Amino acid sequence: MTKILTLLVACFSTLTINAEVAKIQAGDTIQIDLSGIPNSDAQKINGVYSVDDEGRIIGLPYLDNLNIEASGLTQVELAEKISSDYKKKEIYKNPIVTARLINENQREKIVTVGGRVNRPGQIPYREGMTILDAVRAAGGNDRFGDLKRVSIIRRGKTATYNLGNGEAKRITLLPFDTLSVEEKMPVGR
After folding, report:
1. Of 54, 72, 122, 125, which sees the most CB atoms within 10 A?
2. Confidence of residue 132 (pLDDT cuts 50, 70, 90)
3. In a shared domain, residues 122 and 93
4. How far is the C-alpha of 83 from the C-alpha of 108, rounded, in Å?
5. Based on the domain organization, do 96 and 144 belong to the same domain?
6. What was the pLDDT predicted at 82?
7. What is the mean pLDDT of residues 57-78?
8. What is the pLDDT of residue 106?
9. In terms of domains, do 170 and 137 share one?
10. pTM over the 0.70 mark
């Protein structure tokens, strides 16, 4: 029994060490979770993010146009950097951040869809994909999602579109774009 326990501890120790040593690269996919912050903020932030071709994570809520250099960092280093950035901008005093590498060196092109959709997360990118295609692939907007306020985050810049406008429905996406369907505004505002 002692030998089995020792073997299990050795295996788990090795897995932990390898997870921390793996370096993040362009094309990787990262699960980022924050705790110790308001639940409503955690719902907006927690999710899957892509590392773009330049090695950056773009589009973390509340960090405005801050592009987080992720390439070359370990998961632990990235989590510490994100925590530090939220603290520096005085958004959160003591966020607990975890960053987990989902697909090391994933080269598949994806689009990340979040906000008020039924199935937030990554969807495979295809040539000619539009904003509307991506929202539909994410199960459409949920009952609080406002299709008049859909944001695209691309290379650190955010643009918001009204999908009620025929032109906006035809805007095409690029690999590693991030979309966010915003929440409907309360009536009377």
Report:
1. 122
2. very high
3. no
4. 28
5. no
6. 94
7. 85
8. 47
9. yes
10. no
